[in-house]
Design a protein that fits this description.
A 3-stranded antiparallel sheet has the order 1-2-3. It is α+β, with helices and mostly antiparallel strands and 100 residues long. It contains 2 helices and 3 strands. The chain is elongated.
Length: 100
């Protein structure tokens, strides 16, 4: 949605990067100045413990964007599948740091 808009921004929104406050305000403006949920963020910018979606590119999380503020709150599902959590720990270099 942001990439298709012709509004001038300080930095161009790109897949795999977080939204700037300016981008957040443009999203809210685009949807009529009402609170907006942004869901399914790129896996590459989120912590290892967030539950991955079936597309393998995004995680099950959200941010609530509101007028004049930007991000008000956010949340996510946590990975509960042990095998996938262990794989994520290994990729993050944390597998040997926990003793459970």
């Amino acid at each position: 949605m942001l990439a298709k808009r012709n509004e001038v921004t300080h930095c161009k929104p790109q897949w795999g990067h977080d939204l700037s406050k300016e981008h957040e305000q443009l999203v809210v403006k685009h949807y009529g100045g009402v609170p907006v949920f942004v869901t399914d963020w790129p896996k590459s910018i989120k912590p290892f413990y967030m539950r991955g979606n079936d597309d393998k590119k995004t995680v099950a999380c959200f941010d609530l964007l509101v007028p004049k503020v930007g991000e008000l709150c956010g949340g996510s599902l946590r990975e509960e599948r042990l095998r996938l959590l262990e794989t994520s720990l290994k990729k993050a270099g944390l597998a040997d740091t926990l003793s459970w």
